[in-house]
Amino acid sequence: MTGKPKSAGHSGVHPEVLRRKSYPAMSWVCTLFFGILGCAVAGLTTRTSGGPLAGSATAFIAVTVARRILGSRIILGDRVTVVNPLITYRMPYRAIREVSTNRSGTLTLMGADGEPVYASAFGGSLLDSFVGSTDRAVERINAARRAGTSRRTEPGATVKNHGMTHAWTADVFLALAIACAVAAVVIGV
Questions:
Q1: What is the DSSP-derived secondary structure letter of residue 24?
Q2: pLDDT tens-digit readout, 99-152
Q3: How far apart, in whole angstroms, are the C-alpha atoms of residue 58 and residue 53?
Q4: With 161 labelled, which of 38, 116, 125, 155 sits at a CA distance of 20 to 30 A?
Q5: Neighbours of 28 (CB within 10 A)
Q6: 35, 91, 115, 141 from 76: Cα distances, Å
């Protein structure tokens, strides 16, 4: 689990990013391996056979999926931000009733509204039962909650909001995959 403070945001709070230590390295390894593989396979395409482009599309989809999953993280700042593969949740500290792990070992933030928010960055795993990164993340979030409730927050901040997760690298590779798939169909697989 990393917890590197970033530069101060607009509120002066230095955000702390929580994620498993292996995620950034695995993300770049997958990006480089499947990105290079996809480009190399695309070079085998001929005017009469688009089959290699279908292979390139598959490699680029692998990058998209890896970047989305391995980009999961929790950001502690003036609020808790849970970045999951598709949806990002922003919860003021006052909107969190409890932080714990569920039966499968996934870090869960229970909202004041009774709705859970599951953190993909700390999904249950057999290895984590020995390493304990999820338990350390729960401790860090609870410490930030204690400190965050004493900080000045927006009035009535008890509701979480959510939106689509932005993952620019994943989206670029998704566009490449779509372009390769369309080209493979046009040329003929």
A1: H
A2: 998 888 899 999 988 889 999 999 878 777 777 788 899 999 999 998 865 454
A3: 9
A4: 125
A5: 14
A6: 32, 10, 20, 7
